[in-house]
Amino acid sequence: MMNYLRCKPSILVLSLLSITVVSCQQTTKQAGTDSEKDSLISISFNGDTSKTGMVYIPGGTFMMGGDNEQADKDEFPKHQVTVSGFWMDEHEVTNAQFAKFVEATGYITTAERKPNWEELKKQLPPGTPKPDDSQLVAASLVFTPTTSEVDLNDYSQWWRWVEGANWKHPEGPGSDIKGKDNYPVVHISWDDAMAYCKWAGKRLPTEAEWEFAARGGLQNAIYPWGNEHISKGIKANSWEGSFPYQNLKKDGFDGLAPVKSFKPNGYQLYDMAGNVWEWCADWYRNDYYETAKQAGDITNPQGPTDSYDPDEPYTPKKVARGGSFLCNDSYCSGYRVARRMKSSPDSGLSNMGFRCVR
Ligand SMILES: [Ca+2]
Ligand SMILES: [Ca+2]
Q: How far does residue 59's CA lie from ligand 1's centre (Å)?
């Protein structure tokens, strides 16, 4: 578990601060102020029905779930799933694309809003004390490498809750996205991704669609490119070296990479492994695949109707897939096509983004 969690988007399990950080904006968003609700309601389809930048993923039947010994329990049992054909963004949504959305709608992301403690505490274990006001600010989680080896059970060593960090300022105040139009947008919550999709006339992929697409037409392969280990050649943007203090950058990138920097998979999809984690539409349940298996050959599954993560039972979570520039074979191996990740719909991090389907 320790190893697994090192690049987990929801890295906020172990401390009150952590729980607070990951959960607070979710409840803020759910309850929301009137202005926040209005900002969502006012988003309408931009009218662009073209398939520019998308590729068609032919439908088919596949075995969904883990393919090797790195697979976690929630990737089993492997089970048969059929998905209909759909169109998918060929790359992660970029800063330039997200900027157009914000310009058109005035949308304010989760990370740019101050959390509301009265709403937040409803989603926390009973008796959770209120965090210091200094924590209840518009902020997001920024990865910061350490200078030496650290206790890998302590996420606070490399994740910082940074006031002012958001998609326009990925590292916090003083940082910006100038010259990074074609980089994946980050610090995007699931709610933010849904708002973008609404504007774009698209939607988030289901978890089954995402995995089917990531497999690129290969049967039971471990990675989007097949079974060859990620260290053989240049495959994807991941973390090479000793986490979180030594990044060998053999893939050429310390942090984010521009989209389409690596070879696409068999469906011409880029970065289905690594770069940024990608939100899916589905709720996360650790035991969902058992339910799916019992249902037999399921077609276009939409995921469970509720969420349960035994790591954080009070926090409903959505699925994220594909791994990020922080993933390493020694822990989460998030670039495996079957790896499941989960985080609360409000959480944004410096390695979290998305792509859409229609
Ligand atoms: Ca890298
Ligand atoms: Ca990705």
A: 32
The closest of 57, 55, 77 to 66, measured between CA atoms, is 77
Q: What is the pLDDT of residues 46-70, one digit of tens each?
A: 999 999 999 999 999 999 999 999 9
- In the block, tokens 């995995």 appear at 211
Enter the DSSP assignment of 261.
-
pLDDT tens sequence across 199-248 = 999 999 999 999 999 999 999 999 999 999 999 999 999 999 999 999 99
Q: Is residue 295 part of a domain?
A: yes
Domain count, the chain: 1
CA–CA dist 329, 89 (Å, integer): 27
Q: Per the domain annotation, does 358 fall within a domain?
A: no
What domain range includes position 124? 4-21+29-43+55-353
Peptide bond into 244 cis (omega under 30): yes
What does 228-260 look like in DSSP terms, one character per residue? S-TTSSS-SB---EETTTEE--TTS-SS---TT
Ligand nearest to the CA of residue 327, numbered in listed order: 1
29, 125, 140, 181, 331 from 159: Cα distances, Å: 23, 22, 10, 25, 16
Q: Are 23 and 346 in contact (CB under 8 A)?
A: yes
How far does residue 160's CA lie from ligand 1's centre (Å)? Answer: 20
Q: Is 294 exposed, middle or buried (0-12, 13-18, 19+ CB in 10 A)?
A: exposed
Domain of residue 186, CATH code: 3.90.1580.10
Judging by DSSP bridges, how do beta strands 60-64 and 79-83 pair with one another? antiparallel
Q: Is position 256 within any domain?
A: yes
Identify residues whose C-beta is under 5 A from ligand 1, the ion: 237, 251, 253, 325
Distant-in-sequence contacts of 197-201, Cβ < 8 A, 24+ apart: 197/356, 198/43, 198/44, 198/45, 199/43, 199/44, 199/45, 199/46, 199/101, 199/104, 199/105, 199/107, 200/45, 200/46, 200/48, 200/101, 200/356, 201/45, 201/46, 201/47, 201/48, 201/49, 201/358
**Residue 1, pLDDT above cutoff 50:** no
Residue 50 domain flag: no
